[in-house]
Structures are given as C-alpha cells and as structure tokens.
Design a protein that fits this description.
single chain; alpha+beta; 20 helices; 34 strands
C-alpha cells in the first residue's frame, strides 16, 4: 500500500488549472503502484469550489483512473484571514485490500432505519476492517451512526461532516458566524461527493481485506473544569434549551462574560462543553444560538447528560497529540487519514500546523481534512465529535519496524512575551490540579468519617435494642400488676409506670429506626394489608390519650377507598401513629382528623392521600423553618424547640422517601396544622372500605352479604383492567374477595369460569369473560 497527496489551487478563470490537474492524474496513473493495485481510493477535499468544478475534477479522475473509488467533501476552515480556493487529491493504492462504497443521495425519512440497513449489509460482508462516513450535517445523523455500528462494533468507523443546513435546527432560527469565519466557507459550496456531488446525503467507504490492519486514535486535549450541569431540555437532537433549568446560553454569560452576538463562536471556542458518554469524553461547541437563549451543535445532545466547561494549555494540548502520533508511528501506517476540527486551529493559532506535522513524520503523504464535525466510533465508544483530532492508519501485511521512522522536531527558543490567554490557561491548569489533589484528600477523609459514623450508628442501634428489651419486660410486669392487684393506689402507680414506659419505648423505637437508616440496614417489608385493620389499630392505640384530653379523634374517608392494599403496613402505621400522636400532643381542645382519599392510577394501583388535621396551637414561622430543616433531612443541625417531635418527623420523612413520597406541612399559629403525604399502593381489592366499617365490627366470614350494583360494576371494571394488564396476583385476590359476596346468577357463573381460567393462566379467555 502507498499513499500520495496533492493540493491544487484554483481561482475562477484559471486556464492552467486543467492542465495541472491532468499532470497530477497522469503522474498517478503512471506510478507502478497503480498497475499493481487491487483497489484505488481517492479522497477529495474541496474549499471554496462549487459543485460544477467538483464534477469536472471527478470526470477527469474517471478518465485517468477509472477503477478508483472516489469520495470527498467540502472543508470548513476557521481562518478569518481567508484562504485560497483549492482541491486536495489524496490517492491510496491498496495491493490486496478491497474498497467499496455505499451512498444515499438526499435526506432519509428515517436515519436510524437507513443506518441499520447499511450496517447489516456491512456486517454480512467478509473481512471489513474500517468504514469512512462522510455526511452533510443533519440533526438525526447520530441516529444513523448509532444504528450503523450495531453488529459492527469491531470496525473502526471514522469520517467527517460537511456544512450545516437550517433543517438541522428543526424549529429554531439560527444565529451563527460559522460560515463567516473563513471567506471560503460559503453555504452554497457545502456538499459531499460520492458517485456525484450531493448537497444532502451520506457516503460510506468500506475497507476490507484479510491482510489489512487498521488503527484508530481519538485525541481531544481539553480538560473538564468546574461543576457539572445537567441538560434539562433539548431542542431536537442537536440543541440544548436549558442547563439546570436555566437558558443554556447563560453558562457563557456566567463563566466567561460572553454575550450571544456576532463574535459568539470566536469568544467561546477555547472552552468547549464536554460530556462523559459511556466512558468517552466528547466535546461540544455551539456554532449557533437563537433568541430564546438555546444553543445548537453539529453533534447530538441528550436530556439528562451532565456537561462541564473545559480548558486547555497549548503546551499540554500539543504534547497529547504528539504522544498519540508516536503511538501511531509504532503501528507504521502506510496510509493515514486525519480529521481535524477547525476549533483546534482557532485555539492553537500559529502552532496549529504542528499537529499535522507530528503525524507526517510517520506518514508524509497523509490526508488531513477539516469539517464541521468529526466521526469516530470503535468498540462502543464515540459518535459525532467536536474539537477532536481523529487519526486512522492503514497497513497491509506484517508490521514494520518503526524505531527510526522519524527524527524529533528541532526545538526553537521563543523569547517573545507569553500571551495573557496562555498564562491564564497555565494558571487554571495548576490551580485545577491542586484543587483535585485537595479534593482527593477530602474525599478520603469523608469516606473514613462516613465509615466511622456507620460504625457508631450500628453500635447505637444495638444499644437501643438492648435498652428496649428489658423495658418491654418492665412494661409487661406493670400490665400484670394492673390485672392482678386489687389495691387502687397500686393500680394507679402501675398505670402511670406503664404509660411512662410506653412513651420511652416509643422514643427508643423511633431512635432505633433512625439509627438503622443511618447505618444503611433498614429495609421495607411489603405485603398484603386491610385498611380497616390498620385504622382500627390506630384508633385503639390513640383512643385513651384522646379521651383523657377531651379531644375528638376522627377518621374520614373521602370518596371510595380500596379495602385491601399491598405495602409496608407496619411502617405506614408508624407514620400515621406519629402524625396523629403529634396532633394530639399539641392540641388542647377540638379535634384531630385523619382523612384518607384514593385516586386510581392503574389497573391495580392507587395514589393514597393521607391528611392529618388538628385544631391545635399551630407553629410559629421559626418552628416551621426548623421543621422544614428536618424534612430536608438536614439531621446534623440542632433541633431544640420541637423536642422529640423532630425525631418522629425525621423518621417518618425518611420512611416516606424510601416509599417514593414525602411530607407536606402547613400551619398557622393559634389555628392548627395540617400534614399530608401521597403514597402509591398496589390494590388487591377495589371493593371500597365503607364509612364506619372496621375490623371490630367486621362481618362474619361465614355469612355472605349482597354486593351493591355500583360496587359490582366498579369491581368488574377493575377486573377488565387487571385482565388487560395480566396481573395474576391482583386477579386472584379480586376473585377471592368476590366469593365472599352473594352475586347475581350471571356474575356468579362467570366467577366460577374465571377461577378455572385463572388456574390455567388463560388470559385470552379471562379477557373475554370479563367483557
């Protein structure tokens, strides 16, 4: 394999251009490698040349090298001083390998589908080693690449993107200086080349061969700096609307004092945004923005991804490229392709050529191309890139010695003053390294402190259990004294002792739960429970306290509340007991009310709202702020005025957080308080809990009661939804519940058939029966 590179300048009316082109092609045609080659690949790079001239160049290539596979694109340069118009002709002769081309002219209806179809074709081919993709910028081009690489993970996929058209913005009007950065970046001259020039489309060049070796490298050079921000809103596939729910363009105002204006790109290009995607750091620089503060890229962005600004020091930046070039030199490439982002030229300025020179030491005839985006994907990492240098080397046959491939560049002493930007970058780099070292030490200290805290919490948790056990025995003895003693004053002492013990035991239990949570040992224990049993246990436990204070304890059901649910009954009871207990504690007269409401959210799911209201003393603003501190789980801050209420509220809030909920509290001094939460619960029976019906007045299980037409209709509707969702456990429970009622003849017969179908798990029949 051998590679040749030519650059031919052009200007309108140049009569000598054709003769120069003929001479180059004649030279290539006459080279011995041309006669011996199994395949010829020519990559064309145009700048400031129209499609008509490009077609003439292609026709000449057909004339001299008809076997050649030809692909090309328009280069996007970032040089405000301007450049001449030119075409770069890079020709590689492959001795044994094969080169094939796939292409699509136009904008696909479905980029993902096209990528999958082309990817499947490639996967079915023999010995494909690499794929070069050239495309015109489109918002969904990333979907093509994502699907193309499925089944082709071991292929080196690389390439470039040309141009940027307004379709990429989908619904936005772009403000961009991208095309004005170089006088040759005319939007009308943006195209790619396959069998013919295309303003919209895709070209895929495939390189295959048993003896063909390929090495790909991706170099970035920028380093993340500052805090991470989350993409909370996107615009199509390639725009960010909001970062941390703020207009995306504000990040540049905040950190760089840069306003979105005619110089926007030039002012931010040295500080790309970087995304860690699947372990690969990908940069994004927005060439455009709109009036709403949204920013747009030539690569994809995704909601939920975390981004940071980045920086670079020229010396380190170039050193990273040099290291990558040295690794490539050990591969000893016979042909080398570079895709270099123009933002690197803007950052490096007069040192930009050094990156190409590093690689030319091992492949002097390499092809370097600059587009609006780079493509690189290998073994699950990569995609559409910005600010990158992608180098892909090819070699046929065995590895060659690369020990003396090149000599080191001569270092020249530069006595000129160091630019302020370079000094600032060096300062940032040094400070960042020091902060990272400091943070690393702090993280280690935090981990040690956390481990010590967990050990402490585990010790206290065991100690709480050790205290609780003998206290239970004392309370049991007090209970026996109350039962067996006949002396009034002894019974009064025992009652007071038992009451005090219960209070202490309750506090210890809350502390125990809190410590278990802090130690990370706490787990929920979900199961079936009856809501009437839960309410009865609450009433029974709180009735005495309410009676002693003369406070009315109300339990209210708003609408239809399912009677049988699935969840952690013990912890829900603990939460409600704490909230009702606090209500009784701070209410001197009036009432404490528990109100339950259920809203159906699925075939077997409900959102259960519990609201505890009291007519107590209420809270001051200071106390509410203190309580909010507890709800925010800032447990290390002092809680004084709320006494042990803080412990109970903190435990309740933590329990609810584990269940995906949380407390809401409102209060007014002198008028009372209201505490509520919403809990998602699985429903095992939609038969509603009747007002006033409790476990204490539960109907005999041997006695069947008639179900009302309204309840029957509601349960049958629930059966339909459960059948559609194929919820076996919910279906079994519903059927078992319905058997406890006297049903109309038709429904009773259907119930028997449903039981049989449920045992056979015949969902088609079940769905038919419940209709």
């Amino acid at each position: 394999m051998i590679q040749y590179n030519y650059k031919l300048n052009w200007k309108a009316g140049d009569q000598g251009f054709e003769s120069k082109l003929n001479k180059i092609l004649q030279t290539l045609c006459m080279r011995p490698a041309s006669k011996q080659a199994n395949a010829i690949f020519i990559q064309l790079s145009f700048h400031n040349m129209g499609m008509e001239m490009a077609e003439k160049v292609r026709e000449k290539i057909r004339e001299f090298l008809p076997r050649a596979v030809v692909a090309g694109m328009t280069e996007m340069l970032f040089n405000p001083k301007g450049t001449t118009s030119y075409v770069r002709i890079n020709c590689a002769f492959f001795q044994k390998a094969k080169v094939r081309m796939l292409e699509y002219d136009g904008v696909p209806d479905d980029f993902g589908k096209l990528g999958l179809e082309m990817g499947q074709k490639v996967a079915a081919m023999h010995d494909v080693r690499a794929a070069m993709i050239l495309g015109v910028m489109a918002p969904k081009l990333s979907k093509f690449i994502d699907n193309f690489v499925v089944g082709n993970e071991n292929l080196v996929v690389f390439g470039s993107i040309a141009g940027m058209y307004e379709d990429a913005l989908e619904e936005a009007e772009l403000n961009s200086t991208l095309f004005s950065l170089d006088p040759g970046n005319k939007e009308a001259n943006q195209f790619i080349y396959g069998s013919s020039p295309m303003r919209r489309g895709l070209v895929v060049v495939l390189f295959s061969g048993e003896s063909l070796s390929v090495r790909g490298d991706y170099t970035l050079g920028w380093k993340p700096l500052g805090k991470e921000m989350t993409i909370t809103e996107t615009v199509g596939y390639s725009g960010i609307g909001k970062l941390d729910d703020m207009p995306a363009v504000d990040i540049y105002r905040h950190y760089l004092k840069v306003k979105p204006d005619d110089h926007f790109l030039q002012n931010i290009v040295e500080f790309p945004l970087v995304i860690d995607r699947d372990g690969c750091l990908i940069a994004r620089v927005p060439p455009g923005f709109d009036e709403e503060g949204r920013i747009f890229f030539t690569g994809d962005v995704r909601v939920g991804e975390r981004v940071r600004l980045s920086y670079a020091v020229q010396e380190d930046f170039l050193h990273e490229t040099e290291l990558a070039s040295e690794k490539m030199s050990q591969f000893a490439p016979e042909a080398l392709y570079l895709n270099v982002c123009g933002t690197r030229e803007m950052f490096l300025q007069d040192k930009a050529q050094l990156e190409t020179i590093y690689y030319q030491r091992s492949a002097s005839q390499l092809n370097a191309c600059s587009g609006t985006g780079e493509i690189y994907y290998y073994q699950g990492q990569g995609g559409i890139l910005n600010c990158a240098l992608v180098a892909v080397g090819f070699r046929e046959g065995h590895s060659k010695s690369a020990l003396t491939v090149y000599e080191a560049l001569e270092e020249t002493e530069d006595n000129a003053p160091v630019l302020l930007s370079a000094r600032m970058a060096a300062f940032l780099d040094a400070v960042t390294r020091e902060l990272e070292e400091s943070n690393r030490g702090l993280r280690d200290m935090a981990m040690e402190t956390e481990k010590a805290s967990i050990d402490k919490y585990r010790f206290l948790s065991r100690a709480s259990r050790d205290i609780a056990e003998p206290l239970q025995k004392v309370m049991e003895m007090e209970r026996r004294v109350l039962q067996e003693s006949s002396e009034p004053h002894i019974k009064a002492y025992a009652a007071e002792g038992r009451k005090a013990g219960e209070i202490v035991y309750s506090i210890i239990q809350r502390l125990f739960d809190f410590l278990e949570m802090e130690a990370g040992n706490f787990k929920l224990n979900e199961g079936e429970y009856r809501l009437d049993h839960l309410l009865d246990s609450l009433r029974e436990e709180l009735a005495e306290t309410a009676g002693e204070k003369g406070i009315t304890l109300n339990f209210e059901l708003e609408g239809k509340v399912p009677s049988v649910l699935y969840g952690d009954e013990l912890r829900i009871r603990q939460i409600l007991l704490n909230l009702l207990g606090n209500g009784l504690k701070y209410t001197l007269q009036g009432s404490v009310t528990l109100q339950l409401k259920a809203e159906k959210t699925g075939a077997a799911e409900t959102a259960l709202t519990a609201r505890v209201m009291d007519t107590g003393v209420g809270m001051t603003d200071e106390q509410q702020a203190e309580l909010q501190n507890i709800l925010d789980l800032n447990v290390d801050k002092k809680v004084s005025t709320l006494a042990d209420t803080g412990i109970g509220i903190s435990v309740s809030q933590r329990l609810l957080k584990m269940m995906g909920s949380g407390l809401k509290i409102s209060s007014k001094l002198g008028e009372g308080s209201e505490v509520s939460f919403v809990l998602k619960q699985r429903v095992l029976s939609w038969i509603p809990l009747r007002h006033g019906e409790t476990a204490l007045t539960e109907r005999s299980k041997e006695e069947k009661h008639t179900i009302s037409p309204e309840e029957l209709a509601e349960n049958w509707e629930a059966l339909r939804e459960i059948a559609d969702a194929c919820e076996r456990e919910s279906l079994d429970y519903m059927l078992e519940n319905l058997e406890g009622y006297t049903l109309p003849e038709r429904e009773a017969r259907l119930l028997l058939e449903l039981r049989t179908a449920a045992q056979e798990e015949n969902w088609a029949l079940i769905q038919k029966l419940v209709q």
